[in-house]
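WARN no homologs supplied; continuing
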Amino acid sequence: MKSTREGQGMQVGLRKEYLKTRPLCKVTFTLPGEAASGAKKVNLVGEFGDWEREALPMKRHKDGSFTVTLKLEKGRAYRFRYLVDDVRWANDGHADGYEKNPFGDDDSVVTV
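OK structure emitted
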């Protein structure tokens, strides 16, 4: 699912690009600037990185948003969250779904 902000062309949410030659999907995760709230750094943390907090740093853009692209195996759903400045957890407002985690919060879910 692809969505952009009108007039700005900024990518928000999850962008999926299925590869024709391999059973993978390139997924671009985007945390918009408003959600990042002036953050210095954001990490993507999830099942695809064994929930390691520093495994998937995201790139900061001039507009304050953060992105990272991963190749994920098709036919699966993956739980994830964004870790903002090592102190605040955020979910993706454009996730494919949400599931409760053992800590009483929701995890974002991407299905590919």
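The beta strands are 3-4, 11-18, 24-31, 42-46, 59-60, 66-73, 77-84, 88-90, 97-100, 106-111.
OK
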